[in-house]
């Protein structure tokens, strides 16, 4: 379970799994020693079961404390709220851009109706096409962004930050079922 994560304390080389006689006793051993012999490293070897259990119970103790979990989850929720806030701002910005283009288009049409602008003028046509493109793109982007927001799993409603009480000792998984 720890291959690729642990390194030899002597030389810093990766620890790889080796097995003792008959393959029944897997252990982590310094790969430097295995490859280059004892001149490269005196070598480290730890029974796999022992180290896995040690690391697993340490993680369980450290990480699965309710206070610790609460801190970790609260930080994650904060990040998500921040993200959600930025997205809201982004959508508002897109809507503003779309409305702005719409308004300019309307002014151009009004000017044309009042005889002050010629819609057949190629330069004006370009301008209108450009405004329409900006408006449509902003509309589509805003719709996408709204869609993404709604697809996301709901955050806790404000105030529901407390974790449920820690399960009783009986309800917790026993060590026997741990994956190696
Ligand atoms: Zn080593």
UniProtKB/TrEMBL annotation:
The keyword Lipid biosynthesis does not apply. InterPro entries: SSR_resolvase, Zn_ribbon_recom_dom. It comes from the Bacteria. The keyword DNA-binding applies. Residues 1-59 form the Recombinase zinc beta ribbon domain. Pfam families: Zn_ribbon_recom. GO terms for molecular function: DNA binding; DNA strand exchange activity. Residues 139-180 are annotated as: Disordered. Keywords: DNA recombination, DNA-binding. Residues 139-154 have a biased composition (Basic and acidic residues). This is Resolvase. It comes from Acidomonas methanolica NBRC 104435. The lineage of its organism: Bacteria, Pseudomonadati, Pseudomonadota, Alphaproteobacteria, Acetobacterales.
